[in-house]
Amino acid sequence: MKSQFEVYLRLKPSNSQSQNAMQYQIYQNKKLQVLLPKHVKFGLINNSRDNLDFNFTHVFDQKSSQEHVFTNVTTPVINSFLDGYNATIFAYGQTGSGKTYTMSGAETWQLRGIIPRALSYIFDEIDKRTKFEYKIYISFMEIYNENAYDLLEKRHLETPLEQWNKIALFEDDQNNIHLKNLSIHQCNNEQEGIDLLMMGNFIRQVSSTPMNQSSSRSHCIFTVTLEGCDTTSETCFVSKLHLVDLAGSERISKSQVEGNLLNEAKYINLSLTYLEQVIIALNERMKGANRQHIPYRNSLMTTLLKDSLGGNCKTVMIATISSENDNIEESLSTLRFSQRVGQLENEIRRNEKVDLEAVVKRLEQEKLVLIRELEQYQRGGTSNTSNKKIQQQQQNLLPQSSGITINQKDIQEKVELYLNERIPSLDVKSIEETQRCFEAMKDLYNTRMKEYVTELTFISEKLQKYDEILTRKKEQSSFLEQKENSSPEIEVYRRNESPQITFKKRSNQ
Ligand code: ADP
Ligand code: MG
Questions:
Q1: With 50 as the cut, is the pLDDT of residue 496 above it?
Q2: Closest atom of ligand 1 relative to the 12 alpha carbon
Q3: Distances (CA, A) of 341 to 7, 57, 273, 274, 321
Q4: Of 14, 81, 129, 422, which has fewest CB within 10 angstroms of its CB?
Q5: Stretch among 7-11, 311-315, 366-370 having the lowest mean pLDDT
Q6: Ligand 2 center to 97 CA (angstroms)
Q7: What mean pLDDT comes out for the span 72-100?
Q8: Among 10, 70, 101, residue to substitute to test ligand 1 (most atoms within 8 Å of Cβ)
Q9: Which of the two residues, 254 and 175, has the higher pLDDT score?
């Protein structure tokens, strides 16, 4: 299924006087027209033009609330994620334009952003979808100076960033990337998810010193992994939702940085430059150019988001811009980048697989029941249900009492006991009774033979089917194992311990 990238724009409220405010018009919540100020000199922009148009899935103006943004952008993406498709939402824009405000939110619960709202929505929805059993896992990482770090490792609270374990990338022989040193946490409810988000954000803040200000200079990826198993059909799926807060997109020349900061800015800008190159390459390929190589490997961020950018993923970008004229060059650069992203599309598919464990368990149980039944038949007994059936048939088959003192039911029971070797001999008192006994035996014999033949045919057919299914599942299992080993999913290490620090959800909703 094709999935076009969706690109949203959010304008940060302006603080400045009207003479410094960016001049723009929004048309039908879909188009932003920027009126270029006379004094601005743009290398790339034709000076003869005085306005530029940019199209979006939706434009959120300065007054748009967090809730409004969430409902419009995120709800359809998360529904798709809950149905088993991978999804990514990433925020792109210069430092201070509102990426973190949009993704994580501000200080109060009311101003919470997309990530905490997504967690609430996910847990509410899975409660409603009772046909499935779900498991949710969370991981949170930061990419800083081309190194990735686990933001949910509580030891990082006590140690400086330089001493943290770096997340290691491994490449398998099918060129898929696997990760080491990233913890993944099973999460049972919204509060646990929010605690993890807050712990990660806190670790991110304490790692940031005035010297490195890593929060605006690093990329952050909050990943929710969902495992859902259909309780009726033995099928399962695994989907991933990446919520990404990218580093500021401003250019080095303007950031006026020195020494270590210059190094950081270089890395940040380099990885965003590489992101742009990946988007350009994907665009060219979409337009039919013979472009086999997409340069994902040039930076850690593009390597990690390879699937989001050009793979099996429904991807949404939120471009954030400031509404000041001082920032117009950066804003135009963000707007131009977003137009390229908006042209892309991915081929998405549901990550479904058969729950082999459940299938094998069910078949094993069925096999046991069948073996037990077979043994019972071989010993000469019948199951309760077949006994009842035979008795009903016998009531109809045996002739009615002739009026002489012979109890038909007694004869039938006596014959059954005799045939089942419960009594050694048949005690008969008259020729008529002997005749009745023979008739009862003949009828019983015929009925039971028919039952045996039917039941045995049924059992042998079921056993044959069972063997066929088991062979198929074994083949499928080895096929899926091969596929799984070659899957581009991030390999993570699960950790049982939960973080000691807990944060409480604010109640002033
Ligand atoms: P970024 O992450 O892009 O560097 P932030 O999200 O940290 O930027 O935003 C910078 C400041 O502006 C923060 O104080 C934030 O609360 C505020 N801010 C950003 N966007 C909005 C908005 N849409 N409405 C109100 N305040 C905002
Ligand atoms: Mg930020």
A1: no
A2: 23
A3: 7, 12, 14, 14, 16
A4: 422
A5: 366-370
A6: 8
A7: 93
A8: 101
A9: 175
Annotated binding site for ATP: 93-100
User: Is any ligand 1 atom within 6 A of the Cβ of residue 217?
Assistant: no
Q: Tens digit of pLDDT for each residue in 15-69?
A: 766 678 888 999 999 999 998 876 555 544 545 567 899 999 999 999 999 999 9
For the chain, percent of residues with pLDDT exceeding 90? 35
Task: Tell the residue nearest (CA) to atom 5 of ligand 1.
Answer: 98
- What is the position in ligand 1's atom list of the atom closest to the CA of 216? 4
Indicate the helix (H) or strand (E) that contains 141.
strand 132-144
* Ligand 2 ion: Cβ-proximal residues, 5 Å cutoff: 99-100
CA distances to 15, 144, 198, 255, 266 from 263, rounded to whole Å, are 31, 11, 28, 12, 5
Ligand nearest to the CA of 95: 1
Query: Could you tell me if 180 and 167 are in contact, meaning their C-beta atoms sit under 8 angstroms apart?
Result: yes
Least confident of 101-105, 294-298, 334-338, 447-451: 447-451
Ligand 1 pocket check for 248: Cβ under 6 Å = yes
Q: Which amino acid is at 139?
A: S
How does pLDDT run across 370-403, given as a tens digit for each residue? 887 777 767 765 555 555 544 444 444 444 333 4
| Cα–Cα distance, 273 to 315 (Å, whole number) | 19
Mean pLDDT within 344-356: 81
Amino acid, res. 51: N
Residue 316: the pLDDT is 95
pLDDT at 413 over 80: yes
Assess whether the C-beta atom of 97 lies below 6 angstroms from ligand 1: yes
Ligand number, closest to the Cα atom of 250: 1
Contacts of 285 (CB under 8 A, 6+ apart): 291, 294
Span from the CA of 108 to the centroid of ligand 1 (angstroms)? 13
Using pLDDT thresholds of 50, 70 and 90, give the confidence band for residue 82.
very high
In this structure, which residue's CA is closest to atom 15 in ligand 1? 101
How much distance in Å is there from the Cα of 164 to the middle of ligand 2?
Answer: 21
Nearest to 74 by CA among 94, 103, 96: 103
* Element (DSSP H or E) covering residue 329: helix 328-341
Assigned token pair, 321: 């811009």
CB-ligand 1 contact for 216 (6 Å cutoff): yes
296 lines ligand 1 (CB under 6 A): no
Q: Is 222 left (phi over 0), alpha (psi -120 to 50) or beta?
A: beta
